[in-house]
Design a protein that fits this description.
alpha+beta; five-stranded mixed β-sheet; three-stranded antiparallel β-sheet; 23% helix; 210 residues
Length: 210
Amino acid sequence: MAGVSSADRSNWSKALAKLSVLVCVVVLPLSGCETAPPIFQDDLTPYSSVKLTEGDTLSITFPGSPDLNTAQKIRRDGKIDMKTVGEIQAAGKTPKELEKDILKLYEKDLVLKEVSVILQSTSYPVYVTGSVMHPGKVMAERPISALDAIMEAGGFDNAKANLKRVVVLRKEDGPVKHYVLNLKDVLTGKSKQLFYLRPNDIVYVPEKVF
């Protein structure tokens, strides 16, 4: 290209590369070219799919053996200390997975083969961007849905937001997953399904296409 310096060409290439990344991250999930992963019951249940971490406070109850009931805070080493069985690894597991581990350890001593692990308090980040009033990081200290996180970010920008195509980006093991949510149906009462977030999820509210 005549009259264009190598520095200008370099800057243009960098800008084009950034634009390509933006298209891949934001536009492709909304284009219909990519099939959104299914939404499971765990995604609609508070905390059931969130992995436990140090500092979390748990309520552990045995319906048939109330003398074993306890409240535990996960230690820095990721463990909790249970009566008669000692230390158990808790960090890195979901409440359901921890329930199964505890039940195995106590199974011989329980008349009613049942245990419940409830996450009482925690703290983890999620991120909200796009057509909201105050995009940025939101610290979740309770079960938080995509709609909750948007409200924490100041709510939708009503002049721009497309409530029918809200995207949740989730990076766990493997590639990034893109869940597409119709929050307009939730707000109007047509749907009662709340999609609960996991640590470091990104909620993207796209603009309306006129």
